[in-house]
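Consider the following input, taken from an annotated entry for AraC family transcriptional regulator (Pedobacter ginsenosidimutans).
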Amino acid sequence: MPINTFPKNLSQNKGLSIRIVSPEFGHVSPESAAHYGPAQRLPYYFLLFVLHGNSQEVIDGETIEVGKHELFFALPHQLRQLATTRHSANYYKLGFDNECLSRLPGKFPFLLNPLNQQKISFPPDASFRLCTTFKTLNNLLLTTDTNPELILAYLNSLLTEINAAYFVMHKKHTAGNLDKFLGFKLFVEDHLTDQPAITEIAEKLALSTDGLYRIVKQHSGVSPKEFITDRLIIEAKRRIYHDQNTSIKELAFELGFNDPGYFSRLFKKVTGKTIAGFYQDLSL
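Applying the prediction step yields:
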C-alpha cells in the first residue's frame, strides 16, 4: 500500500488525505503558511484550476502563467515556490497523495506528465463540468466526517476529465508509443541516481536504441540522454533548495556523478549558472 505522505494537519477528511482551497474556504493560517517557507518540495499531487482571472505558479524554477479555464498540476517531489501575492483570480486548489490516488478505480497517466506539459486549457463545456465537480468536492469537504467514498467518486470523475483534456491536444501520439515513453519515464525516475545507460533502458523496454530515441524525441522534444541530464539537474536544484548546507561534492555523489568537477560544468551548461551562484541566489 502506498505510504501516506500528506501532512496530517492539512487533511479535511477523517478518512482521506485531501484538501481543497477556494477564495472563501480552506486557507491555512498565516502561522501554518510561514512554517512551509517560501518554497516547498511537494509530498502530494497539487491542482490549480482558474475559473476567472489569472494566477502564476513557479515549479522547479519555471514560471507558468495560468489563465481563465486553465488548470495547472504539480507532482510529488517537485519544488513549488509559494505565491508571495494574492491571486487575481477565482480558483480552486486541490491536494491529495498517492494513498488517496490508490483508492480510485481509474488510471490517470497524465499524472506522470508524459508530454512535459503541466498546464491544460479547457473549452467552455469541459470547464463547466470541471467547475461543477470542484464545487461539489468543496461542499463535501466542508465537514471532516463526509463519507470518503463520495469524495473518491467525484475525485475520480475530476481526474478522468483532466486526463482526457491532457491528451486530446496530442492525438498524433499513438497509444503504443505513449506506453513506451511512460515506461521510459518511470525507469528514469526509479533509477535516476544510477544514471542508467541508454542501451540498458532500451533493452528493458524491448526497443532498439534508435527506437527509444525516436519515441523520447517525439514526446519530449529531446534525446534520451538530454532527458536524463535535464532530470538530474532538476533533481540537483530540488536538493539544493531542500538542504543548502550540502557541499557540491556531496551533491554530485548523491546524484551518481563520480567527478564533481564534471557535475559542476554540466550544471552550468544546462542552467547558465554555477552551483555556487545558484546557492547564492537562494540566500538573497
